Amino acid sequence: MRSLTLRVSDRATSVLGVADDPAIAFEHVSKSYASDRGRGESGAAVDDLSLAVRPHEVLVLVGPSGCGKSTTLRMANRLVEPTSGRIMLEGEDVTTVDPVGLRRRMGYVIQNVGLFPHRTVAQNVATVPGLVGWDRKRTAARVEELLDLVGLDPDRYARRFPHELSGGERQRVGVARALATDPPVLLMDEPFGAVDPVGRRRLQNEFARIQRTLGITVMLVTHDIDEAVRMADRVAVLSTGAHIEQLASPLDIVARPATPAVADLVGRGRTARLLALGRLELADLDPVDDAARGASLAVGVELGDVLDALVGVDGPLPVQDERGLVVGSATAATVVRALDRLTERAEETDATADADAAVGTLRR
Ligand SMILES: Nc1ncnc2c1ncn2[C@@H]1O[C@H](COP(=O)(O)OP(=O)(O)OP(=O)(O)O)[C@@H](O)[C@H]1O
C-alpha cells in the first residue's frame, strides 16, 4: 500500500505539471453509427458533446438506456472512433496516440469483467504487465499488491479460476487487472451492474477507498442514480444523444434538478437521497436546551442518522461540536430546516454550474 501511495504523489506532480488541464476533455464530439443514418438530424448516438473530466475526480455519466453513455466512454479509449470533434487525454489528442498505448494509460472495467476463463486470477491480473514485458518478479509483486488492494487475499485467490469466484470477487479481479500498469485514468462501464445489491454497496465503498488511495481519475457510466450520487464528485445527467441535462455535484443534482429529465431521474426517492447526502450544520440547530437528553449527536453527522436517532425519543437531542461542547439541540424540525437549507444552497450554486458548463468552452 505504501508504494502505491508514493506513486500517487508522483502522479499528482505530473498532473499538476500540466496546470489545470482536464484529465480528459471531449470537445464537440459526435458519433453516428451506420444505423443512425436516416434517423434524421439529431439521430447521432452522441451529438456534439463537450465535457471536461478534472484530474483525480470521479465523474459519473448517468441517464436512460440508449442515451449514449457507453459510446461516450468507449470513444475515450478509442474502442469507438468519433465521427467528429476531438478528445484530449492530459492535453494530448487521443487520435494521435497508438490505441494500444492509449489503453495502457486508461484502465477499462466493464460489467461481467470479461476475465479469461482458463487463466488463474493471478494470470488475469498479470495480462497487461505480461504484454508490456515486465519480468516475473516485478509482475508477481504487482499482482500481490493489487489483490491486496481490492480486498482479495493473494494466498487464497491468486491460483483460483474465474468460475471459482463470486460475481463480486470477479469484479474485484477486473478492477485489479485494469489497475495493473498504474494508469492515470480508469473508465468504468456499469462496473457493479451484475452484482447483488448488498455486494454492490460494499464494492462501491471499497472502490471509493481505492480511488482515494490512488488519486486516479475515474469516468464511470451507470443507469443507477443512487450509484451515481454515491460514487461521484460530479454527476453528468445525459439524455438522448449524450446531451448534458445537468453537470453538478451529487447534492446539487438531487436538491435542485435543472431540468424535468433530471427531476424525473431523481424521482420520488429525492428526500431519502438528500438525507443521505446532507449533513447537520451549526446553522440548522435549535438553541441549547436543558431538556435535551440522550445520546449526543455531532455536528456534521448525516441527516438520515439524525432522524434515526430521533425516532422514539421524546423531545430534543443535544448536539456537540468536534470539541465535545454542546452547541445546540436537534428535533425533527431541525432536519426539515437542514433540508430547506440544502435546496436553497443549491439555488445559489447555479452560478457554479454555469461556470462548470463554460470550462474550456465545454457546452453548446
Ligand atoms: N455498435 C453499434 N452500432 C450501431 N448502433 C449502436 C452501436 N452501439 C450503440 N448503438 C446505438 O447508439 C445509441 C447509444 O448507445 P449506448 O450503448 O452508447 O447507450 P447507453 O446510454 O450506454 O445505453 P445502455 O444504458 O442501455 O447501455 C443507441 O441508440 C444504440 O442503439
Automatic annotation (TrEMBL):
<comment type="similarity">
    <text>Belongs to the ABC transporter superfamily.</text>
</comment>
<keyword id="KW-0547">Nucleotide-binding</keyword>
<dbReference type="GO" id="GO:0015418">
    <property type="term" value="F:ABC-type quaternary ammonium compound transporting activity"/>
</dbReference>
<dbReference type="GO" id="GO:0016887">
    <property type="term" value="F:ATP hydrolysis activity"/>
</dbReference>
<protein>
    <recommendedName>
        <fullName>ABC-type quaternary amine transporter</fullName>
        <ecNumber>7.6.2.9</ecNumber>
    </recommendedName>
</protein>
<keyword id="KW-0813">Transport</keyword>
<dbReference type="InterPro" id="IPR017871">
    <property type="entry name" value="ABC_transporter-like_CS"/>
</dbReference>
<keyword id="KW-0067">ATP-binding</keyword>
<dbReference type="Pfam" id="PF00005">
    <property type="entry name" value="ABC_tran"/>
</dbReference>
<feature type="domain" description="ABC transporter">
    <location>
        <begin position="24"/>
        <end position="265"/>
    </location>
</feature>
<dbReference type="InterPro" id="IPR003439">
    <property type="entry name" value="ABC_transporter-like_ATP-bd"/>
</dbReference>
<dbReference type="InterPro" id="IPR027417">
    <property type="entry name" value="P-loop_NTPase"/>
</dbReference>
<dbReference type="GO" id="GO:0005524">
    <property type="term" value="F:ATP binding"/>
</dbReference>
<dbReference type="InterPro" id="IPR003593">
    <property type="entry name" value="AAA+_ATPase"/>
</dbReference>
